[in-house]
Design a protein that fits this description.
mainly alpha, 2 domains, 0% strand
Length: 141
Amino acid sequence: MDSRGNFPCIANIISSIKFAKYYELTEDDYVVTILTDSMELYGSRLEELTLERGDYTEIDAHKDFQLLMDTSIENMIELTHYEKKRIHNLKYFTWIEQQGREMEELNRQWYEHETYWENIFSSASKIDELIMEFNSRVDGK
């Protein structure tokens, strides 16, 4: 996609398309993904792009749709255990250095992944409340 749609959720959509094509899924299969950020966070970016490129037109939408339809399985690989671990360890910078979390937590995500993520998922209602609170602050409502 061009930089007009350079939002984190687009990567998740494209990854889902690639996943479905890679595993040769059909209309009988389902893929679920997450669209991470509220669009309200990107108002200034949309304004910048509109000033830079003009209004987003129906022609732009057709081009972007075609880009999605042309998404292929290039750059897809099935990872070995250690390749997965190497990718997991890329979180070090954002989790430890940027967010100040403990290395122990990052290690739990890898070594105790079932219980770690079950605990996160069991907190979904609290996380939803925090998201709603954040979105209302962003929306100004």
